[in-house]
């Protein structure tokens, strides 16, 4: 099993008030920053019994926990699965393979860092992450610094109430842009869609040929996501339209290069929709074609994360810089691009 930077544990997988949604959000964020995470919903064909082994193979352990966590009378973890995972990591601390402070709790939604100390020996006497004392974004950044640092700076990980109370009025700028990648290949090292699709509930893609969600995607992962009900929507530049021909000329491509590639990816996704090995027709997979000037490649994940790439003049798509945008409370930038996405989708043609 591969060594991981962090093991992300959670509770209440099938409960609306569990911590899976928050753990997933944190997973997306850390993945976008190049952190190697073990997050069980993202592990294809892995067995739950393997999670304690994965915990021992991770450099850090984080239990994402809210006030609905199952605890015993003494305040310790009641969930047997999480208990086994954190105990496996605690054994590494006890043996000197990890140090105290390498296991922490991400407390939110009523749970506190004080309660975290009672959950397990591994969590006693360390500074936990308490979202109640700061914003979600700031706490995520604190987790990132902790994971990527070689030493634990103890109390600095927990923000003070005074820090969390700072606020400012909207000044016409936005903090939604989180990262810039020089080109698509660099982005793919941080944002592996093959992993994201294992946990995402909704993925919406706009591009020319959409290779990332088709030919470069693990077919088993795509089928599994569709079978569990994930909504996937893909918009292709119409290979028979005039704008495909114009884009080929602009990129100095041999005639029919983009036409053939897009037709191949279209055939692939339509086979997944109607003629897959499960023998099912997936209505939760929507496929569209559009015939307008291709300006942007956009991948929206769970209505919160956007991977954006422009199609510059005379430059192949894969060679353009890419941007990671995360929806915030003041989400004007994210909404601007999502509205652009909807305009193109509504003007396109759905393939049945």
Characteristics:
33% helix; Endonuclease, Chain A; alpha/beta; 2 domains; Rossmann fold; 19% strand; 13 strands; single chain; five-stranded parallel β-sheet; eight-stranded mixed β-sheet; 352 residues
Describe the protein's topology.
Layout lengths: L3 E6 L10 H13 L4 E2 L12 H6 L1 E8 L14 H15 L8 E5 L5 H4 L12 E2 L5 H13 L12 H4 L12 E5 L2 H7 L2 H4 L5 E5 L12 H9 L3 E7 L4 H9 L6 H18 L10 E6 L5 E6 L3 E6 L11 E5 L5 H15 L2 E3 L1
Parallel strand pairs: 1-2, 1-3, 3-4, 4-5, 7-8, 8-9
Antiparallel strand pairs: 6-12, 7-10, 9-13, 10-11, 11-12
Largest sheet geometry: 8 strands, mixed
Unreliable stretches (pLDDT < 50, length at least 5) are 151-170
Topology order in helix (H) and strand (E) letters: EHEHEHEHEHHEHHEHEHHEEEEHE
Gyration radius over CA: 22 Å
Total individual domains: 2
Instruction: Give the spatial strand order of the biggest sheet.
Output: 6-12-11-10-7-8-9-13
The separation of the N and C termini measures 41 Å
Mean pLDDT over the full residue set: 87
Tell how many strands the DSSP assignment holds. 13
CATH hierarchy, class of the largest domain: Alpha Beta
Explain what this protein looks like in three dimensions:
This protein has 352 residues and is α/β, with parallel strands linked by helices. It folds into two domains: 4-164, Toll/interleukin-1 receptor homology (TIR) domain (Rossmann fold, 3-Layer(aba) Sandwich); 177-351, Endonuclease, Chain A. Helix content is 33%, strand content 19%. The chain has twelve helices and 13 strands. The chain has helices at residues 20-32, 51-56, 80-94, 113-116, 136-148, 161-164, 184-190, 193-196, 219-227, 242-250, 257-274, 332-346; strands spanning 4-9, 37-38, 58-65, 103-107, 129-130, 177-181, 202-206, 231-237, 285-290, 296-301, 305-310, 322-326, 349-351. The strands form two sheets. The protein has an eight-stranded mixed sheet with strand order 6-12-11-10-7-8-9-13, sandwiched between helices. It is elongated. The model is unreliable at 151-170 (pLDDT under 50).
């Amino acid at each position: 099993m591969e060594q991981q930077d962090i093991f992300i544990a959670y509770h209440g997988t099938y409960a609306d008030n569990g911590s899976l949604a928050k753990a997933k959000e944190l997973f997306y964020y850390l993945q976008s920053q190049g952190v190697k995470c073990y997050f069980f919903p993202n592990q294809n064909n892995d067995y739950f019994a393997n999670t304690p082994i994965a915990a021992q193979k991770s450099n850090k352990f984080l239990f994402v926990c809210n006030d609905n966590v199952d605890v015993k009378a003494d305040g310790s973890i009641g969930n047997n699965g999480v208990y086994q995972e954190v105990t496996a990591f605690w054994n590494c601390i006890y043996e000197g393979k990890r140090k105290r402070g390498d296991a922490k709790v991400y407390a939110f939604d009523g749970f506190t860092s004080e309660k975290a100390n009672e959950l397990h020996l591994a969590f006693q006497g360390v500074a936990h992450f308490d979202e109640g004392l700061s914003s979600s974004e700031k706490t995520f950044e604190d987790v990132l610094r902790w994971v990527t640092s070689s030493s634990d700076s103890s109390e600095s990980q927990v923000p003070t109430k005074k820090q969390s109370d700072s606020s400012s009025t909207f000044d016409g700028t936005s903090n939604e842009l989180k990262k810039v990648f020089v080109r698509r290949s660099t982005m793919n090292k941080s944002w592996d869609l093959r992993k994201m699709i294992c946990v995402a509930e909704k993925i919406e893609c706009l591009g020319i040929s959409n290779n990332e969600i088709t030919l470069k995607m693990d077919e088993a992962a795509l089928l599994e996501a569709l079978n569990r009900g994930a909504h996937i929507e893909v918009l292709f530049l119409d290979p028979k339209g005039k704008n495909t021909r114009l884009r080929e000329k602009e990129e100095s491509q041999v005639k029919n290069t983009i036409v053939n590639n897009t037709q191949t990816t279209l055939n692939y996704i339509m086979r997944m929709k109607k003629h897959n090995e499960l023998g099912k027709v997936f209505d939760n997979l929507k496929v569209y074609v559009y015939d307008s000037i291709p300006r942007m490649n956009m991948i929206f994940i769970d209505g919160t994360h956007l991977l954006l790439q422009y199609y510059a003049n005379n430059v192949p798509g894969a060679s353009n810089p890419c941007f990671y945008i995360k929806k915030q409370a003041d989400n004007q930038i994210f909404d601007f691009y999502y509205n652009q996405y909807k305009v193109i989708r509504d003007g396109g043609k759905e393939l049945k």
